[in-house]
Amino acid sequence: MPPQSDDKRQAAREVVDILHEISTLLNTNLDRTELSLCVSLIENGVNPDALATVIQDLRKEAPVTSGAPRNESPE
């Protein structure tokens, strides 16, 4: 592989690492893979606000299958 490709991959990893740190501070509960997918979707034209809404809706609809806390506001 050309060195330039390795540089791009390293830069992408660094960006995802930074985004993951921000995500952790904001308690989004998104892992690195999920963040990478979100970035790819946004880069390909998906509206970020719409994506956030879909993620929130999916979390509300998903059954709780693990002990991981869910970000739900009390009713």
Automatic annotation (TrEMBL):
The keyword Zinc does not apply. It comes from the Eukaryota. Signal peptide: none annotated. It is found in: Cytoplasm, Cytoskeleton, Microtubule organizing center, Spindle pole body. Keywords: Cytoplasm, Cytoskeleton. Required for gamma-tubulin complex recruitment to the microtubule organizing center (MTOC). Part of the gamma-tubulin complex. Belongs to the MOZART1 family. This is Mitotic-spindle organizing protein 1. It comes from Aspergillus cavernicola.
